[in-house]
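RECORD TYPE: protein structure
NAME: Putative proton/sodium-glutamate symport protein GltT
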Amino acid sequence: MNKQKKKLPLAMQIFIALILAIVVGLLMQSQAAFTENYIKPFGTIFLNLLKFIVVPIVLFSIMCGIISMKDIKKVGTIGLKTVLYYMCTTAFAITIGLIGGNIFQRFFPVIATTDLAYEMPEKTSVMDTIVNIFPSNFISPMVESNMLQVIVIALLLGFSIIKLGEKNIGIVKACNNINEIFMKCMEMILKLSPIGVFCLLCPVVASNGAAIIGSLAMVLLAAYICYILHAVVVYSVAVKTMGGISPAKFFKEMLPAIMFAFSSASSVGTLPINMECVEKLGAKKEVSSFVLPLGATINMDGTAIYQGVCAIFIASCYGIHLTLPQMMTIILTATLASIGTAGVPGSGMVMLAMVLTSVGLPVDGIALVAGVDRIFDMGRTTVNITGDASCCIIVSNQESKKEQRRAKKVQP
Ligand code: ASP
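PREDICTED:
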């Protein structure tokens, strides 16, 4: 009898790896150095493979998404809707973060603030940031994984191919074929995700397990309550009212991407799984291949929440009370900072410096939360990618409706 062995679905495998990592991590708290030296490197290998595949995936999937729309105006409307949704939900997120931070403020511990040290990243002005979006050569954005520049290249190439008109048939085919090759390659890498998840998470639990119970528990709790509130309220309402699907179905299908984002703390790394999840939810490929890579780069609702909660936390540790205008400034800068945050582990913490400086809070305060940043990061990344997916479902649904309306008009 040649019975085929039934394979556990990838989502289940990732889930088991996640639980196992937490259990093993807690058991190995006294051997955190071992997990750091011998388990983490395998996680790093997995992350490296993801980093390798992500640049070509973003470049080709955005290009193919644009080309398949065949119309620059259509790309413009979808792009505008996407960016608008991203900005609005991020502003919502930071507001929730600030409210949550204020409610929890009385529980925040008083922490000695004398021996803090955080190295301030080099300051760049807003104009420099804008200039840096545009690449000055073709290769370096790919080498440095500068995703905003890669997106600009993809947009320019995509538009140029559409503009070529009839001559572009061969190029379109070639682009789609190359995209398929990278997608296959990504599929192979993703098969390793349970191992990757285990090796990434286990050392984090081993070295931070005790800290969770420590004095930072309250600020972590505040951030996680806000993350959950934002995801459950804002995204549920959005997908139900504008996306036409039930929130329960949305979160159920999103589980593999959610678990992966939680373990890897990288939006960009989660991109491939996120694409699979939204396609299962019925999103159009031409929309997902454009909206998701863009979101993984510029849409960071979880990061915005974290910045709001941490700004309040750091202020209260220093005995500073933030005024309303200061909070408004935080909403604005955190929304902008989340655009500039790269979808890789830890980048949100660097951008927190920009938010703190904007309202004159001591940047050194970052040292207070830096030790447990990874734990904040796992939650904020999960929110980040769920936000991208909700946008994708909504834009895709609107496009389908538009097409149906058009088809009805054409029919006599
Ligand atoms: N790790 C987050 C992400 O990939 C970014 C951050 O650090 O906030 O979405």
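COMMENT: Residues 25-407 form a domain with the Proton glutamate symport protein fold (CATH 1.10.3860.10).
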